[in-house]
Every structure is written in structure tokens, then in C-alpha cells.
Amino acid sequence: MARVRATHILPLLLLPALCGCGADAPAAPPPLTPAALEAVAGKPAIAREKLARAVDALFSAEDMRETRAVIVMRNGRTIAERHGPGYHENTRFISWSMAKTVTATMIGMLVADGRIRLGESAPVPAWQRPGDPRGEITLKQLLQMRSGLRHTEAGDPIYASDEVKMLFREGRNDMASWAEAQPLEAEPGAKWEYSSNTTVILADIAARALTEDAGQDGRDPDTRRKAVSEYLRNRLWEPLGMRSMLPEFDASGTLIGGSLMHATARDWAKFGELLRNGGSVRGVQLVPRAWIDFMTTPNPRNKFYGAQTWLNRGEGADVQYPGALPSVFSMNGHLGQYVVVSPRQGLTVVRLGNTRQDRLDVVQARIADVLKLFPAR
What we know:
By secondary structure, the chain is α+β, with helices and mostly antiparallel strands. The chain has helices at residues 6-22, 34-38, 48-60, 99-112, 139-143, 162-168, 175-180, 196-212, 221-240, 265-276, 289-295, 360-371, and strands at residues 67-74, 77-83, 93-94, 246-247, 261-263, 280-281, 284-285, 310-311, 329-333, 337-342, 347-353. The chain has a domain at 99-259: Beta-lactamase (3-Layer(aba) Sandwich), CATH 3.40.710.10.
């Protein structure tokens, strides 16, 4: 048999390696910036670089425009915190609709106090006249955004939307009265419709409960403002250590409970931790656990929504945080304000910023990337 020369064999041996060099090998991820690495604690309980990259993506990914603060807490410990240029740990960030969840929590405390009742007709004086069909609206239906009132959120054109009319136009001086004056467009309880006006009605109910039960004038603006401010401070802000919280009130003394509260990212994370722990903080039950369960249970007309709180239910494109657990819930605000809570993972994730409404699915997907790094219990 003829002998094969080594010079003929060597090219054949090198052929696989040469072919591999011509293929499109996966590109190595770019190195992390010092800011990305410094944002993550030394021992975050998972791979530090993976968490740093997931948090960094919330600041640097295309279409993010713009993330201003991110905090990740696990089992009560901050394992990542980062602020964008011009923002820091003492910056107060506007809530927009994250405030709705705070208002619902306050309502739950008043229910637990026995001042108002969940299943009864909502105590709105204008609805109690004989023959007024709005008297059938219950407090529970208001909380679950199924009052049946004619409230159009984010309509077209935007200046004709009911939340704009209430916040900035004809209703701005007495927001609750304007929202309560709207007629029914559906039977109470029959359909779900998101409404900032509804949450202001809840804030009005809270002010009346706190003032009239104390024998005070429930219509006096200063009395209303003081009663709600003191209740929130004594029952929530101080026990939680949320000393930056600054809620806004209208000229009639009604808490603008659907959209205008301000707090640092750290304080928003503290509120998320209250929800994650079922209403308790350091072993003290501030809010009944059953109320947190109610807020995070799908309502009869929308499986993605509980009581003033968003839920990660559904399938496909309807899921807010794709790939995350269905038990995840969140406080959501206009232009990409989020406090996302995953009790089964021990997680609270805060993302605050300014992102176009049609790009929020990108932000939610990046938040989901953070959530998916952690195991469920």
C-alpha cells in the first residue's frame, strides 16, 4: 500500500479548525462599565455580573429612554441600586399611577379600622339621593375599577380625556366632586375600565371617613388635608421609614390619590417591601394580610388587575413581565414608573424613568430579565 505523506495529512487535520474560524461565533458581551458593576452588591446571592448586566440593560438598552433609578431588593436587602445622571438617592420621583396602590392600601386600613365597609354602597353623598342609580356602586367596585361611571382614560384627543379634565381643566379645583358628578355608562360591576378619576373618589371617601368620624367638617379643605396627611404619616410613612414621601392635594383638600405622590426610589422600594411581606414591617402588621391578598387577586372583570394593582396574569403578549411568575404584581405609573413585587422570589424591583408609552413593553421585558435571574421558593 502506498505510504501517505505527512504533508498531505496535516492540512486535513487543520481543516475543522480553519472552518470554525470562518463561522459566525457568538460575540463576547462588551465589558461592563464601572457604574454597572458598582451598582451591584458584593454578594447578591446570584452571579454578580449577570445581575449587573440585567440592571445595566435598563439604562443602556435601545428604546429605554430613559431610566432614572433602579433598585433591586431581595429578602429585605438591597442588592442593586443605580441612578441615572442628574439623579441620586435623595431625588424625589413622581408616582403617577403608582399612587393608586398607595390609596388602595390606605382604604384597606380604614376598612380594618371599621370606618368604611367594602361590600356596601360607596359613601358618596351625591349618590345617596333617592332614585340615583350610582348609589348601587360599592366600595369594592370602585377599588376594582368596575364602577360603571363614564370615565374615559387616555382618550383621543388627550385633552378631552376625563383624567385631563379632572387634573388640569374644569375639575382641577375640586377633583372628587367633578369625578363623582359623572353619570353611569354601564351597570355597576358589569365592566372594567381603568380610571384615575375613580381613585380620586376613593381619596375623597378616605377624607370624609377621617374627618366626619372625628366630628370635623368633612368639606373644609385644610381639615381634610390635615386628617389624611396625619393618617398616612402615622400609619404608613413613619412605620415604613418613608420620610421622603410627599403627596399632593387639590384646592378642596382631596388627596390626588391616583397620580401625584413623590418619593425617593428607596422609599418606593420600602412600600414594595410592605406589599411583599403581606402588609407587615419588622413583624408589625400595618395592613391586614387579607387586604393585600384582595388587592392582588384578579377581579371578576379583568384577570390582569386586582384592586388598584396590576397582575402578571394571562398568556403571550398580554403578560406584563414575560417569563416571570404569574404571582408577580406591580404598581405601574405613566411613562414607565414601576414597583414590581415577587413574593415567591423575595424580590422587589423599582424602575423609575421617562419612557414613551408605546415603548413600555421593552422596559417590562427588561424588568422580567431581572426577575428571571432568581429562583422561586
